[in-house]
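Recall the central idea of this unit: under ordinary conditions, the amino acid sequence of a chain determines the structure it adopts. In this exercise we apply that idea directly, starting from the sequence alone.
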Amino acid sequence: DEDEDDEDNDSNDSDESESDISNESINDEIIDNINVIKLKEIEKISDENKKCVICLENFVEDDDCICLPCIHIFHGDCIKKWLKRRNFCPICRFKITSENIKKKINQENI
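Accordingly, the structure predicted from this sequence is:
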């Protein structure tokens, strides 16, 4: 019976780590202060990156966008809503934390 209990605990551990990735929230104030950039020179973006994977709409010049620390770009409103529910990049699943967002904001303000 102890072996069965150990197996149950092991499976719970793996479930927990998966939920940690998606449920650890980022401070709303930090999300609201992420620097929004105007998308310029759309022709320089590769074809595979010319649409926001959240809303599935193509980017157009002068869209308000956000570039995450993993360098993926999204419409500003789309990714802010996403980050209020999940703490990872929807493309590469890079874990987004308050710390790496703050660091990116500081780098952009230099």
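The first helix runs from residue 2 to 23.
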